[in-house]
Amino acid sequence: MGRTSKDKRDTYYRQAKEEGWRARSAFKLLQIDEEFKIFEGVEKVVDLCAAPGSWSQVLSKKLRSNKENKDIKIVAVDLQPMAPLPGVIQIQGDITEISTVQRILSEFKNDLVELVVFDGAPDVTGIHDLDEFVQSQLLLAAMNITTYLLKKGGTFVGKIFRGSDNSLLKSQLQLFFEYVIITKPRSSRNSSAESFVVCKNFALPDGYQLNLINPLLHNTNFDWNSLDGINRFVVPFMCCGDLSAFDSDKGDALKSIDNINEVVKPMEPPYAESRTLVTKPGEFVIQRHEKSDNTINTDEVK
Ligand code: SAM
Predict the structure, then answer these.
(1) Whether complex ipTM tops 0.90
(2) How far is CA 74 from CA 25, 40, 85, 207, in A?
(3) Catalytic choice (159, 200, 255, 291)
(4) 96 lines ligand 1 (CB under 6 A)
C-alpha cells in the first residue's frame, strides 16, 4: 500500500528531490502552465512569496531556456532570504508594503510585467477558519500589489484555500480580469484545502485608484451582497496536470530513491535561534541559544 498524505515524503516530494527542485510546489506551477499556458509571451515576471524558490526555479528554467530571448527578467520577493538562483533577482520584503512595490518597479525600470505568480502562505495556526481568513487576506494583498505591477492583458496565478468567502474573492478578481478560473493541480494533495486562481487578461476598472492600505475595492461603496442573478457568476473549477500522473496522496511510486537529501538548507530557520532540551524530565529545562558566533548560552529554568 502507498503512503498516505500524512507522510510528507510523497511521490512528488521524492521526484522534486530527484530532479533538484527546492520544493514539491514546483510541480504545481508546471502543471498549471501545462493546462493554461501562462508562460507564453512572458518576458517580465514577479514571483510573490517565493522562498525557498521552487516556483522561481520553474520560471528561471522555463523562461530562460530560449537562449535567443535575452530580455527575460524574474524578480522574486519574500520575507525570508532565499539561496541565489540563476537569472532571478531577489528582494527581501513584505508584499503588503509600498516600499516593496517601489523596489520591484525599480528593478523593471518602471516597466510593467506580463505575469505575477503568488504562492504565499502565512504561518498556519491549525484553526481552519482563521487560517482560511488570513490566507484570503494575503491573496488580497498579493492582488493589491499586482495592480501596481501588471500590464494590461497580463496574467495572475495565486494560491487560495477553499472556503466560504471565496465567492466574494472571485467576484473581486473578476473586476480586474476577463478570465478567472479555479484549479487544483494534480500535485496538490487532495487532502489539502489549497487550490489556485488563474486570472487572465488584466485591466484596471475605470476610475480605480491604486492603494495598498486596504484590500482591493476599498475606494468604492459597492455592496457585494447586491450581486444577484447574472452578476453572481460561478467561477468554473478545473483539475489540471495529467490525470494519469502520480497521485499526490500516495508515496510509493518512486521507491528507487533511497537517499533523499535537502536541495537547499533553510537560510534562517526559526529553530536556529532557540532550542529547548529537557535533561531530566520534571526537574528542569535547559534553554540553549545558538548565537551567530556559534557560542552557546545555557540557562536553567525551574
Ligand atoms: N512558492 C514557494 C516555492 O515554490 O518555493 C513556496 C512559498 S511558501 C509556501 C510561502 C512563503 O510566503 C514563505 O516563504 C513566507 O515567507 C512567504 N510570505 C508570507 N507572508 C508574506 C508577506 N507578507 N510578504 C512576503 N512573503 C510572505
Answers:
(1) yes
(2) 18, 15, 10, 30
(3) 159
(4) yes
